[in-house]
Amino acid sequence: MSGEAHGGGAKDAPEARSGGAKGAPEARGGRTAQLKHTGLRPGWTTGACATAATTAAYTALLTGSFPDPVAITLPKGQTPSFALAVEELADGTATAGIVKDAGDDPDVTHGALVRVTVRRLPAGAGVVFRAGPGVGTVTRPGLPLPVGEPAVNPVPRRMMREHVAEVAARHGGTGDVEITVSVDHGEEIARSTWNPRLGILGGLSILGTTGIVVPYSCSAWIDSIRRGVDVARAAGRTHVAGCTGSTSERTVVAEYGLPEDALLDMGDFAGAVLKYVRRHPVERLTICGGFAKLSKLAAGQLDLHSGRSQVDKGFLAELARRGGADDALAAGVAAANTGLAALQSCLASGVPLGDLVATAARDEALGVLRGAPVAVDVICIDRAGTVVGRSTVA
Predict the structure, then answer these.
(1) Measured between alpha carbons, how far is 93 from 359 in angstroms, rounded to an integer?
(2) Could you give the CA distance from residue 217 to residue 272 in angstroms, rounded to a whole number?
(3) pLDDT range class, residue 12, cuts 50, 70, 90
């Protein structure tokens, strides 16, 4: 998939100005401070663009006029506005289009035109999603959407539903609409992503958990991780957490009550965190992230980016065997479409694959630390932030 899967803090993009960050005190640590330290400009996910286009199109359908720019509210409360590139109003439908700005991230969808067509449905029909040209359809199990559904991920769906409800309340609509999301040249762009291998056919996925694309330059982000460790140590923090994104960050805060300056936005750079903490120890390091990403660490990968490492399902099958899986289950894990599908099959059979992955990842981390006086534990989560595996502290 595209590089937009990272969450992050807010910063102005050229065509989408955020109105929620002014006047806030400057953070000394945590992901907001890391992002500022990199000097890189964030962007907006396809999910945020689709939500803005939906809001504009449904407003035009009810009022006859497109708001331009159109403002939306993101999951963390930021309120960016987006300029419209397409406005089309017909009998019973309205279409709005927004050009995605990925900021300084090397995202394959940067510059893509995201279109949404909204059509009225009978009262009581609810919100129905359709895949237009350039948006894929799910054809295999193991993803967070059922087979046959448009590849519009759960958080963007929720955002679009919420904004449809707000527009309906404001302008007297019923909120019963069909939303068709399209991306110009999306099928061609998708060939540069993992979508075809995952069974998402016909185009791109509409992604995003925060609405914001955090840009990752390897050197800049690794430098920001080092600065985050320095800030935590200077503040006297004895327990820090390396998190792969905003969902895992919320998980460790809920689990341990860690303050912002104890949180390291690790992203895909597990090795950078471990190597720097090896030279600049803290008493305890928690690593928290998605099950699939941390399965890569468990298998010995220190760079967790989807373009540079892959989930080793043969390795997962071997872990499952150690946890009591029979030959049939282990073969199913090895042949699973995604890491999530492998995890689900093991959970259904009572095999604690999540705990096994977390423990193996912890052991790999301890190996990188080479005896540094740092205790480590690992937490694996699913896309919703539910803990699906954890290690003990060692």
Answers:
(1) 53
(2) 13
(3) very low
Listed residue (329, 328, 321, 379) closest to 354, CA to CA: 379
- The SS3 of residue 181 is strand
* Beta strands, E only, 83-225: 86-90, 93-99, 113-120, 127-131, 134-135, 137-138, 177-183, 200-201, 203-204, 212-213
Q: Give yes or no for a contact between 46 and 190, defined as CB atoms under 8 angstroms apart.
A: no
pTM here is: 0.63
Q: With 0-12 CB in 10 A as exposed, 13-18 as middle and 19+ as buried, what is 377? A: buried
What pLDDT was estimated at residue 1? 36
Residues contacting 334, CB < 8 A, separation 6+ = 313, 314, 316, 317
Which among 18, 46, 15, 56 has a CA at the least distance from the CA of 166?
56
CA pseudo-torsion sign 41, 47, 52, 56: positive
Band of pLDDT at residue 383, cut at 50, 70 and 90: confident
Task: Give CA 348 to chain center in angstroms.
Answer: 25
Q: What is the distance between the alpha carbons of residues 103 and 137, in angstroms, rounded to a whole number?
A: 27
Instruction: Give the C-alpha separation, 268 to 5, whole Å.
Output: 11
Instruction: Report d(CA 88, CA 346) in Å as an integer.
Output: 49
Q: Quote the longest CA-to-CA distance of the chain.
A: 69
Nearest to 180 by CA among 137, 145, 122, 133: 133
Give me the amino acid identity at 158.
R
- In a 3-state reduction of DSSP, which class is residue 96? strand
Which amino acid appears at position 327 of this protein? D
**pLDDT, tens digit, 9 for 90 and up, residues 351-366:** 999 999 999 999 999 9
